[in-house]
């Protein structure tokens, strides 16, 4: 008897992780039934589940299970007890933070990618699949009006895109003299910019936060003065990171003016377009983002502006050779890279990777660019409509009109004599509206003032949700101001 045959013992049977086709079909049907029922009920779910869940989290702590559990019971536990205890981020009433909707075809793409489990780290391992990802990056390039020769990278989100952009700029302008370099961004910029700079070796004392104007946009004159001061001190200004839509107020920095500064100073200009860049896909909205195609690099978050599931980011770099220079590497066990075809391992830090581009490719192929443009344009139209009506609510003071699809405001009234009182009233307004369950709103603090925010970016958000949002803001503002 062979060694392999003699190993067929009960213990060896336990080592089998394969499932029969019938079992896999049954499991798949159970998941799809649960998922579709969940999506169909989104409009009836509270916009924010009960997240006061510290006791639940303590109860969930457990040792590693020695034996497997029933699949249906696991699904029941997830869908009935755990998933509802969270923000309803895919819901039509999610107007908090920066929404990401998660179109259904992307979930199917992930299922295909995970079950076929193809390796796309190097082109030779799955050339046709990598080409689909290259197509996706090319489509993004066309939408952003970047030139031919641009290269890109799909990332888990905007933070990793920004990190890779800083690495490109650092390598091109600083070389080994990292400590001498200085980076500039708005004091309204996303916190990931400073974090990414630190990861790239540009520490906090070499990051300059440039003050914003009355519309929360980076001031180009202050930027120029800061660059001049650093040059006088013997430092090496090398990069500016501007924003195409900030998280706080949706502000779009003066991208053309900043591009002029960078061109004159010989610096890299990166645009953080994680929230707002996809409005550039709509030709009639491109003037809102004038100057964006002049950037040296651009962060994109398809899990925002393309309504894809979280974990879908992207980076475009105008001079593709800069991105490749940072990441190109080889080893004796790797096949030779090709110059004709896009090879992910030569343009990003990962070697082991799945197939992240499939969710973008399938969604665009299924819906088409025209349908996407219409959905993106609708979100801005809804935000403008809502802002005009919210501004008419007694006690509301508009702090930021929607440059894209986000607007911010605060409450004032005779009984709100101090800034602290106005801040508390504005925060209470957000909480009271959210507690009603139809829409979820969040605020932010800018220069000591608490602002209420409304951000419209979920593909499921339509006119009905915005009408409810305006009506509930008016009702709760009246109650707060009268109390």
CATH-defined superfamily of the largest domain: Type I PLP-dependent aspartate aminotransferase-like (Major domain)
**Overall average residue pLDDT:** 95
Number of domain units? 2
Summarize the biggest pleated sheet: 7 strands, mixed
Order of helices and strands: HHHHHHHEHEHEHEHEEHEHHHEEHEEH
Radius of gyration: 25 Å
Report the end-to-end length measured between terminal Cα atoms: 87 Å
CATH first level of the largest domain: which class?
Alpha Beta
Total strands: the figure is 11
CATH architecture of the largest domain: 3-Layer(aba) Sandwich
Helix content: 40-55%
CATH topology (fold) name of the largest domain: Aspartate Aminotransferase, domain 2
Strand residues, percent: 5-15%
Strand order of the largest sheet: 1-7-6-5-4-2-3
The parts where pLDDT drops under 50 for at least 5 residues are none
What this model shows, in words?
This protein has 483 residues and is α/β, with parallel strands linked by helices. It has 2 domains: 108-367, Type I PLP-dependent aspartate aminotransferase-like (Major domain) (Aspartate Aminotransferase, domain 2, 3-Layer(aba) Sandwich); 371-482, Aspartate Aminotransferase, domain 1 (Alpha-Beta Complex). Helix content is 43%, strand content 13%. It is built from 17 helices and 11 strands. It has helices at residues 3-6, 10-14, 21-40, 54-60, 71-82, 104-116, 127-144, 158-173, 191-199, 220-232, 255-265, 302-305, 320-327, 357-367, 369-390, 419-435, 463-482; strands at residues 151-155, 181-186, 207-210, 236-243, 268-273, 297-300, 313-317, 396-400, 406-411, 442-446, 449-455. Strands 1-7-6-5-4-2-3 form a 7-stranded mixed sheet, sandwiched between helices. It has a 4-stranded antiparallel sheet with strand order 8-9-11-10, with helices on one face. A hairpin with a 5-residue loop joins strand 8 (396-400) and strand 9 (406-411).
